[in-house]
Amino acid sequence: VIPFIFLTAKADEQSRMRGLRTGVDDYITKPFDLEHLLSRIARLLERQQVYQTQLDAFTAQDFSQKLMPKRMPAVPDYHSFFFNLPREQGGGDFFDWNEAAPGTYFFTLGDVMGKGLQAKFYAFSFLAYVRGTLHTHMRTTHSPAGLMSRVNQILTQDELMGETFASLLLARWDAYLNRITVCNAGHCRPLLVGPDGSQLVADSDLVLGLSPDATFTDTTIELGPQQAFFAYTDGLIEQRLATGEMVGEHGLAEAVQH
User: From edge to edge, which strands make up the β-sheet containing 91-101?
Assistant: First the structure.
């Protein structure tokens, strides 16, 4: 929205009120002092910036709510947790899941490159790609790598999303088999956490959107008693310690043990 100042020779109160009711941001009568005019313009621009910031924050919060699930799967003998705490407008993080068959769940966790409201818009669009791909192609394959390849092809061929790059973690959880199959396209490596320690799993393949010919691989994890699968976004490992260093993957692996 562009601020509008009404400059007129009509100085009476009735004309001023009629002018303000038309929706103008300020009303200045002739003759006017140039310094006074510039001061009023500066105040209007400051007020406009505050309004725009508040509007962006509100829009970003609305996008954030749509990019995150409101609940997690309820499976006997398992506990599933989800935590999200965006900073300011946040970035392009998104998380979603769906039940492909009884006891089989697909999780999508990703990050569209960028910050702020623009990244959230692209994340919202990209999540629609992922949902559509899963819905269509799970009829022929339940391989996360196969589904990842299809998402990547669609992303690189679409003109609107052609300049979009995203990391994505696709995980198929076969709850009754105690098994998770993971495909990682440039995302943070998840952790397998248990009584004997924690380890990074599913080495990363190429980030989505760089090459239509990129190949992706599946990694299968067998979940043992008291073991947990822990996935996250880069906002967690980029947190700063008191020393000024980032937490990092290995720092997080140590922290989750406690």
Answer: 91-101, 104-115, 166-174, 179-185, 219-222
How many beta carbons lie within 10 A of that of residue 257, not counting itself?
A: 12
Kindly state the greatest CA–CA separation across the chain.
83
Q: What CA–CA distance (Å, rounded) separates 217 from 224?
A: 23
- Residue 142 corresponds to which amino acid? H
- Percentage of the residues of the chain whose pLDDT score is greater than 90: 28
Q: Whole-angstrom Cα distance, residue 156 to residue 163? A: 8
Q: At what angle do helices 144-157 and 116-137 cross, to 10 degrees?
A: 120
31 prior amide bond cis, ω within 30: yes
Determine how β-strand 191-194 pairs with β-strand 228-230.
antiparallel
Q: What pLDDT band is residue 130 in, cutting at 50, 70 and 90?
A: confident
Maximum mean pLDDT: which of 15-19, 209-213, 214-218: 214-218
Q: Residue 75 is encoded by which pair of tokens?
A: 């499976």
- Cα 192 from Cα 198, distance rounded (Å): 5
User: Residue 106: its pLDDT value, please?
Assistant: 93
DSSP-assigned beta bridge partners for residue 190: none
Nearest partner of 135 among 187, 185, 96, 79, judged by Cα: 96
173 phi and psi angles, rounded to 5 deg = -105, 110
pTM metric for this prediction: 0.70
Which H/E stretch holds residue 147? Answer: helix 144-157
pLDDT tier for residue 162 given thresholds of 50, 70 and 90:
low
